[in-house]
TrEMBL record:
InterPro entries noted in UniProt: FAD-bd (IPR002938), FAD/NAD-bd_sf (IPR036188), TetX_monooxygenase (IPR043683)
Transmembrane segments: none
One example of a Gene Ontology biological process annotation: response to antibiotic
Domain of life assignment: Eukaryota
This protein's name: Zeaxanthin epoxidase
HAMAP family associated with the record: TetX_monooxygenase
One Pfam family linked to the record: FAD_binding_3
Keyword Cytoplasm: no
SUPFAM superfamilies with a match to the protein in the record: FAD/NAD(P)-binding domain
Keywords attached to this entry: FAD, Flavoprotein, Monooxygenase, Oxidoreductase
Length: 426
């Protein structure tokens, strides 16, 4: 029997006895991670389940594991929870992101921070014609928007102290036998030995090569992320153009996707269908002054309605290039007993179906529940992957189709037609 399989059986039976005795969660299963560091000397340590990456997927996994009394350690490369901006807003889908938060016991907290008005959506063509204008009633909380930083904080704060090892950038993972344990090395000089490895480390996963040799490929579209600060107060016209939720201004194989954030900022993804790394061919050079970058982006929208171009004019000095990548649609691999992937590490896709974070959270919760319900890690991973491959393939296909539809010559018309088709229930 594989080492990890034995461990998992151990934790299951010890957990059951703790639950029976105390009627509550165990605070620490007997095989809990023991990770020690003393000054600059990091001793080789043993970890039961090591999660690589503390994004929404890894955090949700850890939270659901802990609510079931199972131990887990997250190794995250960021130096601290504050060290990186965490992006804009998400709408959590009932069957995935919201379901995961219910499993995590955090539904009430999520509902209290979600915004119904963020569900409003507009689609505009390049001439400024509104082809779709959907206003959500205040009591419709089907897919409310939530700010990603708030959601991440909620998950981080729900974990036991010391669950996340910040500043642990994984640089290599070597199995010492067919099914582990795994020697994990970090950029800070630390090492650990883990029985089970969960790769939740996003697009450029270090864990993925253990199960699959696929690499993300360029999806044909790149964003420049820009933003308008304090729009309601300082840029009233821009705020009116965008409305309370999202605006899609599309056409000519490009567009702008603008979203209201909870902090008053309007976050805008300016999208171009272009060659990989081809910003300079569009005259956009990120080493130029902010004014020149802004002007170069505006030039790309020559002939568009003034209120759309004014969104670029109003943006501050943050210009972040974001080329989009995806793993092959339908990616899968033969199941392994002690290592698996979740979220973007498993099935990176373009954001056009709004599914990536939702799936990452669903994966995290689903895997934790499978581990809790199984007597060994191998059968849990097999059952989890079977379902994950299927749902990820559907979303990846939809995401590919949506990207093709939105960033096209007549993107606004096609997207609006699609919306009315959905609304009519055909
Ligand atoms: C512009 C844009 C807009 C999007 N909008 C939406 C949306 O509206 N709705 C939606 O559902 N999805 C959206 N997505 C997709 C979503 O952001 C991702 O699918 C989601 O963040 C994936 O979560 P994850 O936990 O799998 O990975 P990540 O969020 O990428 O987290 C991975 C974590 O692993 C850490 N890490 C990476 N490498 C290592 C290493 N070697 N060692 C240790 N730690 C490591 C990283 O620091 C990070 O914290 C969008 C994506 C983009 C690019």
């Amino acid at each position: 029997m594989a080492l990890s399989t034995t461990l998992l059986m151990g934790v299951r039976s010890s957990l059951r006895s703790v639950v029976l005795r105390r009627g509550c969660y165990s605070t620490s299963a007997p095989w809990a991670a023991t990770y020690r560091s003393s000054g600059r000397v990091h001793a080789m340590a043993d970890t039961g389940i090591a999660v690589i990456g503390g994004g929404l997927g890894g955090l949700t996994f850890a939270r659901v594991m802990q609510t079931k009394g199972l131990d887990v350690t997250i190794f995250e490369r960021e130096p601290s929870r504050e060290s990186r901006g965490q992006g804009g807003v998400l709408d959590l889908h009932p069957e995935s992101g919201q379901w995961a938060l219910i499993q995590a016991g955090l539904e009430a907290e999520y509902r209290s921070m979600a915004r119904a008005e963020g569900q409003d959506m507009r689609i505009m063509d390049k001439h400024g014609n509104l082809l779709w204008d959907e206003v959500s009633p205040a009591d419709l909380m089907e897919r409310p928007e939530v700010d990603r930083p708030a959601l991440r904080n909620l998950l981080i704060e729900s974990l036991r102290p010391e669950t996340i090892r910040w500043d642990h950038h994984v640089i290599s993972i070597e199995p010492s036998g067919d099914d582990g344990p795994y020697e994990i090395r970090f950029a800070n000089g630390a090492t650990t030995r883990a029985a089970v490895v969960i790769g939740a480390d996003g697009a450029r996963s270090r864990v993925r090569p253990l199960v699959n040799d696929a690499e993300p490929t360029y999806a044909g579209v790149s964003f420049v992320e820009i933003g308008i600060p304090d729009a309601e107060r300082l840029h009233i016209e821009a705020a009116k153009t965008v409305g309370r939720g999202s605006l899609f201004a599309l056409g000519d194989n490009k567009g702008m996707i603008a979203q209201r954030n909870g902090d008053g900022r309007i976050r805008i993804y300016v999208a171009f269908r272009m060659q990989e790394g081809g910003f300079s061919e569009l005259g956009i050079a990120f080493n130029e002054s902010h004014d020149l970058i802004r002007k170069a982006i505006m030039n790309q929208f020559e002939g568009w309605a003034p209120e759309i171009i004014d969104l670029i004019r109003a943006c501050d000095n943050s210009f972040v290039p974001r080329p989009l990548y995806a793993l092959p649609v339908g990616i899968s691999w033969p199941s392994m007993k002690t290592v698996t992937l979740l979220g973007d590490a498993a099935h990176l896709m373009s954001p056009f179906a709004g599914a990536g974070a939702n799936l990452a959270m669903q994966d995290g919760a689903a895997l934790a529940l499978k581990l809790f319900d199984s007597t060994d890690s191998a059968s849990a991973i097999l059952a989890f992957e079977r379902e994950m491959f299927e749902r990820a393939e559907q979303e990846a296909r939809q995401s590919e189709e949506c990207l093709g539809m939105c960033i096209s010559q007549d993107g606004a018309t096609r997207f609006a037609q699609q919306m009315s088709y959905y609304q009519s229930g055909q």
